[in-house]
Specification:
Order of helices and strands of chain B: HHHHEEHHHHHHH
Strand content of chain B: under 5%
Number of helices of chain B: 11
Strand order of the largest sheet of chain B: 1-2
Order of helices and strands of chain A: HEHEEHEHHEHEHEHEHEHEHEHHHHEEEE
Organism (chain A): Neobacillus niacini
Number of domains of chain A: 2
CATH superfamily of the largest domain in chain A: Response regulator
Oligomer: heterodimer
InterPro entries (chain A): BCAA_transport, Leu-bd, Peripla_BP_I
Number of strands of chain B: 2
Distance between the termini of chain A: 62 Å
Helix content of chain A: 40-55%
Strand order of the largest sheet of chain A: 8-7-9-10-11-14-15
Structural class of chain B: mainly alpha
Distance between the termini of chain B: 37 Å
Strand content of chain A: 15-25%
Family (chain A): Belongs to the leucine-binding protein family.
Number of strands of chain A: 15
Protein name (chain A): Branched-chain amino acid transport system substrate-binding protein
Largest sheet of chain B: 2 strands, antiparallel
CATH class of the largest domain in chain A: Alpha Beta
Keywords (chain A): Signal
Structural class of chain A: alpha/beta
Helix content of chain B: over 70%
Number of helices of chain A: 15
CATH architecture of the largest domain in chain A: 3-Layer(aba) Sandwich
Radius of gyration of chain B: 19 Å
Chain lengths: 402, 287
């Protein structure tokens, strides 16, 4: 038995070695990109490297790809328009992406490598763990974090070079709670994803829910990377007769949870964590009918902004799927960074770029404006008009937030 | 009471899937004498192939499963021929490295071909059945019934047919089997074929209640390892019983102890069983 264990340990070490080897190959490809960048330089066009570290393999790969697609699409648009001009010199963007498998330590190592090899002024990363890891050294190594996470804490730690792109999730607590309490009742069961993010979200919602006089009748979490079936946990949650279920995580498994809850006879409403999107959930459930009584964030495609239909069309042509906010927010983020670099008159002075983010937002072209965001806070977070939606009678209905 | 019965049914559903996966793993253990790390990847391939057959070629669910069994079975055979057979004289660590290599290859392959996103497998058996306040879905009943049928067929095959006995003979003693005139190459290929087929059945049955994605094999493979250790390495009844023990302990543990600790409950059970019977419930040789 002991021998077996050692053998297993050995095997795991080999898994690690293999994964590292996989990392190597991805750097090679980015090396090729650099070559191209250097070629451009000889034609009097500069190259600005933009770093990206996110999950590009493993269970969260689809999420990493969608965020990267947004950044890439914006960069391609800028390059297709002949680049952008800073202080009389033309620059093109070159996205250097590395895989971190959703791990904070890998994200940190990737960022270090990017700094040494590519000197990017901005590194995008789409998970709070990675953002915290990068915040340890980003002010020292001089790069801005393009932070895609609605975790409020990332902008509360006082890091001067962090830009939080999505709206912070605690803004949703009030509208979600109000809607669910008004329409269904005061007993809620918690079944969010078992990630740190899901737990923090749950803790905040629990405090707010109880402050409003509600009761949490069941409090647990679902680990989507370990659970094959949700019937067991749902049976236990529904035993407590909740009026509302708080669910969330990646859209597709979250949709499965909602579907199985309905199969078990649950008639109440759902509070859907901002990580999951209604339109992506619909792809699994087949129609919105199953999600009637849900409250969550407005899907990008159903949003009212004027630039949306055209953006959706362009994205579909390029990637053959409907864009969600993962792609959309990173897309707008990349464009704002470009405008900020223009306004700052520099592509490498990161403090100056940070100081000009507001100007970047002001100068954003109308056809890029797929979100109503006009202001960046002192803390480095984009300030949004929150866009909340409910599902009623099989349709997405916008909900006003005051 | 209703909750108890509902949870027993839930445990039975999930236990059936675990058992099917563990059966394939335990059979191949008889040939390789190491746990086949790539088995989870075969499970994942099974899910994808059934899904592709249904969505792209419009095949009926059962027909798609049949194709999937064949294809994954052949992948298993190819694995044996090109990887494990040449390594049969090598130290066991080589087999393990090779198995992990296959696992990584197949996962990357699936992500390359089908993309990284979650996909949903439609099922013609989505109906909800309510009996005495208990909720079943047709798909779940199907999982339980099909798993039991497959297990009975497999046991009959291994016990009552000549070809089946050769598999057991070879797992007991490869050289001995060779001496009495069993074609060990053929048996090894056959075993991999059955193992792949079982993985495909398990994935195709359980995919409609979850999702299809490149890492889906990891949901079950770790548990399958636990099961075959618990049931006794290489033992067929051990894999079946172990699967159900794990399934029931998860669902009942989540209900009556704590959902957050249900994995611990399963592992405490493993520790207890192994301290009483260190070789597992059905030690080797007791096929």
């Amino acid at each position: 038995m002991r021998k077996m264990k050692w053998r297993f340990m050995f095997s795991m070490v080999f898994v690690l070695i293999f994964s590292l080897a996989a990392c190597n190959s991805s750097t090679n490809t980015s090396g090729d990109n650099d070559q191209k960048g250097d070629d451009n330089k000889s034609e009097e066009v500069g190259t600005v490297n933009i770093g990206y570290t996110g999950p590009l393999s493993g269970p969260a790969a689809f999420y990493g790809e969608r965020t990267l697609n947004g950044v890439k699409m914006a960069a391609d648009e800028v390059n297709a328009a002949g680049g952008f001009e800073v202080n009389g010199k033309k620059y093109k963007l070159n996205i250097v992406s590395l895989d971190d498998k959703y791990l904070p330590n890998e994200a940190g190592a990737n960022a270090k490598r990017l700094v040494q090899e590519n000197k990017p002024p901005i590194i995008f990363t789409p998970h709070s763990g990675g953002i915290f890891a990068l915040q340890v050294f980003n002010q020292l190594d001089k790069f801005i974090i393009g932070a895609y996470s609605s975790e409020p804490q990332i902008t509360e730690v006082g890091n001067k070079l962090t830009i939080r792109i999505p709206p912070r999730y605690d803004g949703y607590l009030q509208p979600f709670t109000e809607y669910a309490m008004e329409n269904f009742g005061k007993n809620v069961a918690f079944l969010p994803t078992a990630s740190q993010y899901g737990k923090d979200w749950g803790a905040k919602l629990k405090t707010y829910w109880e402050k409003e006089g509600g009761k949490v009748v069941y409090d647990s979490a679902i680990d989507f990377s370990k659970e094959t079936d949700f019937f067991t946990i749902l049976t236990n949650a529904l035993k407590e007769k909740p009026d509302v279920l708080f669910i969330g995580g990646a859209s597709e498994p979250t949709a499965k949870v909602a579907k199985q809850a309905r199969e078990l006879g649950f008639k109440g409403g759902f509070i859907v964590m901002d990580q999951a999107k209604f339109d992506e959930m619909k792809a699994v459930t087949g129609s919105y009918d199953l999600l009637n009584g849900s409250i969550g964030v407005m899907p990008l495609v159903d949003s009212q902004e004027a630039a949306i239909p055209d953006f959706v069309k362009r994205y579909q042509e390029k990637y053959n799927e409907t864009p969600g906010s993962e792609a959309g927010l990173n897309y707008i983020g990349m464009h704002v960074f470009v405008e900020a670099m223009k306004a700052a008159g520099s592509v490498d002075d990161v403090e100056k770029i940070r100081a000009n983010m507001q100007a970047g937002l002001d100068n954003l072209a109308a056809d890029k404006k797929i979100y109503a965001v006009d202001k960046i806070g002192e803390d480095g977070g984009f300030e949004f008009d929150l866009s909340v939606a409910a599902v009623e009678n099989g349709k997405i209905v916008p909900i006003k937030v005051d | 009471m209703e909750i108890l019965i509902q949870q027993l049914f839930n445990g039975m559903t999930i236990g059936s899937v675990y058992s099917l996966v563990a059966l394939g793993l335990t059979l191949v253990y008889g040939i390789l004498h190491i746990p086949n790390f790539a088995h989870g990847a075969l499970y994942m391939m099974g899910g994808y192939i059934t899904l592709t057959m249904m969505t792209k070629y419009g095949l009926h669910y059962w027909l798609a499963i049949f194709v999937s069994i064949l294809v994954v079975g052949v992948i298993g055979v190819l694995m044996e021929r090109f990887v494990f057979h040449p390594l049969r004289e090598a130290p066991p660590i080589h087999d393990k490295i090779a198995a992990i290599g296959i696992l990584l290859f197949l996962e990357a392959f699936a992500q390359f071909v089908w993309g990284a996103e979650f996909q949903s497998m439609p099922t013609p058996y989505g109906q909800v059945v309510q009996i005495f306040g208990l909720t079943f879905t047709m798909q779940r009943l199907l999982i339980v019934i099909s798993a039991i049928v497959v297990m009975i067929l497999l046991t009959l095959f291994l016990k009552k047919t000549f070809t089946g006995s050769t598999i057991i003979a070879m797992s007991q003693n490869r050289e001995g089997a060779n001496l009495v005139g069993i074609n060990t190459n053929r048996v090894a290929m056959l075993t991999f074929m059955i193992s792949g087929g079982l993985a495909a059945i398990a994935a195709s049955l359980s995919a409609p209640i979850n999702l299809v994605f490149p890492a889906m094999g990891q949901l079950v493979i770790l548990k399958a390892f636990v099961i075959i250790i618990l049931g006794g390495m290489g033992s067929v009844p051990g894999a079946i019983l172990g699967g159900y023990i794990l399934g029931f302990s998860e669902s009942l543990g989540a209900t009556y102890i704590s959902n957050d600790y249900k994995d611990i409950i399963a592992f405490v059970l493993l520790v207890l069983i192994l301290s009483v019977k260190p070789t597992g419930l059905f030690s080797k040789g007791g096929h």
